[in-house]
Design goal:
Length: about 325
């Protein structure tokens, strides 16, 4: 699942390549030893990226304590983990190619994709009312506004603005994830369109005897996919959101410019590829905030038209037309 920035196209793995469970993709060693090098590479990559992701996705950060606080374990090293799992099957050079692949965006320390033991708790949101995603977005934006207005000495202002800038993108990600999770959970037609639109699910090959087994596990698979998806990849997320909810596709061009800046803040320590510091002014924060609100407002308007509220006293009483 595209749960990190490494989501380049990869060859489709055949069904016999392995199995998927709550812990991620588990390749079959016998198949691996017989597979072509390109498929071996893809399977090892899938194994790693279904278990580890960029700590920026979920890991708490505390600059005074030295950076990310790996409360779920870690940081993990890609070479060490891949060698530990596949070192008995392949030589160092072949495994190193996979390591270089997953580290190609500059992530050298990895956090676990936390699915146990509070996997179900992560999706408690799904039982809540339809207005929650937008209300949570507003709450987070208000928190960003309050911090932006706080009195901070000049030396620390650049870092604070960078963090707030990244927080605005994170708030948008949460809004998109919460919105999709809610509608997939409460509307079977949305759920079906999601499975039909998602490339990962469309690409899975099943034998006739496996159909009912896969159907039984499909809801869990979708929840896990949504949990791990990289929601700031708007070029991937917006088409999936629009197709699943049967709404239009908001323009993403301006937001993507900000997301590229966020990438330098998060993955390059606040510096550009040339080593220059990323400068965020209050005007930049205001501009990004405006784009986030406009983007969410456009989605909300389309959702209200697509799923009109029948009973104004009950925002969960909706009609799927």
């Amino acid at each position: 699942m595209g749960h990190n920035d490494h989501i380049d196209d990869q060859p489709d793995l055949p069904l016999e390549a392995g199995t998927h469970d709550r812990l991620g993709f588990q390749p079959d060693d016998d198949w691996l030893e017989r597979a072509e090098p390109e498929l071996r590479h893809a399977a090892m990559r899938a194994w790693f990226l279904s278990r580890y992701w960029d700590p920026a996705n979920e890991t708490p950060y505390n600059g005074r304590e030295g950076g990310y606080q790996y409360i779920h374990g870690g940081p993990y090293d890609a070479d060490e983990e891949l060698q530990g799992r596949f070192g008995h099957l392949f030589d160092d050079e072949e495994i190193r190619e996979v390591v270089d692949d997953v580290e190609s965006d500059g992530i050298l320390e990895w956090a676990p994709i936390h699915t146990e033991p509070d996997y179900d708790a992560d999706f408690e949101f799904e039982a809540n009312k339809r207005s929650d995603p937008y209300e949570f977005l507003e709450q987070r934006l208000n928190e960003v506004d309050a911090l932006a207005a706080a009195q901070v000495d000049l030396q620390r202002q650049p870092l604070l603005r960078q963090l707030l800038y990244s927080s605005l993108i994170a708030a948008l990600e949460a809004y998109l994830a919460d919105t999709m999770s809610y509608w997939v959970a409460v509307d079977k037609k949305v759920f079906r369109r999601f499975v039909s639109s998602c490339e990962e699910f469309k690409a899975r090959k099943l034998t006739l005897s496996q159909i009912f087994e896969r159907m039984d596990a499909l809801e869990d698979d979708v929840e896990r996919y949504l949990q791990q998806l990289v929601w700031h990849r708007l070029d991937k997320v917006v088409p999936l959101l629009a197709d699943s909810l049967n709404i239009g596709r908001p323009e993403i061009g301006e937001l993507m410019k900000h997301i590229l800046i966020r990438h330098d803040i998060v993955h390059r320590g606040g510096k550009t590829k040339d080593g220059d510091g990323v400068k965020i002014a209050n005007d930049n924060l205001g501009e990004l905030r405006g784009h986030v609100v406009a983007f969410a407002d456009e989605i909300e308007a389309m959702l209200l038209k697509r799923f009109p509220i029948v009973d104004p006293s009950n925002v969960d009483d909706v009609l799927d037309i």
